[in-house]
Amino acid sequence: MGSCKIIVFLFCVFIHGAFSQKRNQHKRELWTVEQANDWYKKMPWLLGSNFLPSTAINQLEMWQADTFDPVTIKRELGWAKSLGMNTMRVYLHDLPFQADSAGFMKRINVFLNIAARNGIKPVFVIFDSCWDPFPKSGKQPKPVPYVHNSGWVQSPGLTALKDPAQYPRLERYVKGVISRFAKDKRILAWDLWNEPDNINGNSYGKVDLADKATYVLPLIKKTFEWARSVNPTQPLTSGVWTGNWTSDASLRAVEKVQIGESDIITFHNYGKPEEFANKMKQLERYHRPLICTEYMARPTGSTFEGFLPTAKKHKVGMINWGFVDGKSQTIYPWDSWTKKYNDEPALWFHDIFRKDGTPYKQEEIDLIRSIVAIK
């Protein structure tokens, strides 16, 4: 992107911000450390998965009216309950809201009712910078055989991310959803942006924005402002996912917003147990509740047995990637975008259950239940 385009983009952002500032005068403030920890003291040790029903290839197929599948959701959240899980991280998307906001809200409410009946309080993700930067409403593609997350889509898409003229639409989405459920005790937290500066190098890197952080930075700031302006009773967060977190000086600009604006601190780690423990220690200096919202990739050394005992000891909430092997195909590794696979891998990358509810590894199920203390 040329310097002139950047100047024009930032000018448009400034103008929109000037008009929005007055509307946000009564937003709630960032929780104090004491407020955050008082909230966390009331919580059990948090355990769950990133959840997508096995019948959906992406967020659009999960939430669009013609493919919303409460039957599968009910069945699979029942399996989560059987493990003692009490939360799930669930991705929303701006396009279903744009197409039919009232219907989208009703479907979220249905999901929340099912989750509540299973003792699960979800963390809802508002925006996501991972995988396909060109989301389209309507019928979604079939999975590409043996490819990890072949149909997952970003929110907002590249076109909207680059265009400040779409900020009002995105503002309506953020405020509309969060205000509707701002006092809903069935919801654990709002994760405002997943991996915001991820440029998807091994999948969509050739078409994604190489300078994505330039576009994300002003919008993630606004997203926190919009969310806070509707006074949610649930905490707001955005998880740091890569980089050096040892000091404020080592943080990238986007990470400074993520941590500085979050009521509770969330993070991702797919490394070995010692790396996880080190990252956890780096973030403990903020003295806020910690939740690891992505982990568990067996071939990388990120496992239930390696992470959960340490996490529970420190009361760090844990939400692994993947629950049921389905259309997302995340049993295959990230490198399935560049390396050919022809069969189920000997060692699954993510996920816990097969579609029929059979555990991939019974010993993992037994471990999870023993740590949660379910007989």
SS element count, helices: 13
Low-confidence stretches: none
**Number of distinct beta strands:** 8
Distance between the termini: 57 Å
Placed side by side, the strands forming the largest sheet appear as: 5-4-3-2-1-8-7-6
Structural class: alpha/beta
Strand content: 5-15%
Major sheet description: 8 strands, parallel
Taking all Cα atoms into account, the compactness measure Rg is: 20 Å
What's the pLDDT, averaged over the residues?
A: 94
- What is the N-to-C succession of helices and strands? HHEHHEHHEHHEHEHEHEHEH
Shape: globular
Q: Into which percent range does the helicity of residues fall?
A: 25-40%
